[in-house]
Amino acid sequence: MLQDLFPRDHKRYEESRFGAELEAFASWLVAQGHLRHPLRLHLHRVRAVLEGCDRFQAKRTFKEEDLRQAFIVLGPSADEYLCTGRIFTRFLAAADRLVRVESSDALSLLRHRYHQYLAEVRGFSTQSLRQHGATVADFLSRGLTPERGLSGLTAADIAAFVQLKSQENSRPSLQHVIAHLRAFLRYCGEHGEASAGLDLIDTPRVYRGELPPRALDWTMVRRLLASIRRRSPRDWRDYVVLHLMAHYGLRPCEIAALRLDAVDWEAGMLTVD
User: Fold this and answer.
1) Beta strands in the chain (DSSP E)
2) pLDDT tens digit string along 169-196?
3) How far is CA 16 from CA 20, 23, 91, 217, in A?
4) pTM given for the model
5) Distance of alpha carbon 27 from alpha carbon 7, whole angstroms
6) Quick check: 222 and 247 in contact, CB under 8 A?
7) How far apart are the first and last CA of the chain?
């Protein structure tokens, strides 16, 4: 399989100390219906991560937490490596070579399952996972009563937590906290961890005009317009769109709604609804 996927570089994969894992992973990806180009990229990333980490040994089991940490990289390819890490984790689980995270704390297990759901089903980025995780951890530590837990959670408990967070956050940031909380409570309701309907939480109003308006410097706007070549119909279209926005203040939705009959060519007039 590796020789077919990498006609020139297959020896680098086959002679790797993880050659058996890479060969099995390639066969599994093909069986799962992955296309050739992304399949090659997944194999390239897995080889780079496994060979660059001393915690992994060939033909042994892999710890889930070690894998999660190993596939966190910096740079523009961070999301691609996280995606590959999730797929490789599923492969190891299917091959019965994955050691799951063990915890006796029910809330810790719930947080772990919810993290997996956000990462694998919702496809959240690392930053979004961190933000949602921080809100959930805070809610579980300060928003629950120890004697009742999640099963006895009420709307009054949630309101009290939101009131607490409102003293620590501005209205725009409180919107994000409530969005994180809604998603978590919806997940708990759907999986029987808490009563259904607790995710119906009012969010604070944030008005568009309450902050000072912002605009690009006019010199930069003129340079942007001058940078368009205006040689082809497409160039002229782009120039007209930006010109209408810059000089006449038209919104994108108004420009998108324009038709040829909106132009009175004889009178030189443009009608905008």
Assistant:
1) 62-63, 98-99, 263-264, 269-270
2) 888 889 999 999 999 999 999 999 988 8
3) 9, 11, 19, 55
4) 0.48
5) 16
6) no
7) 60
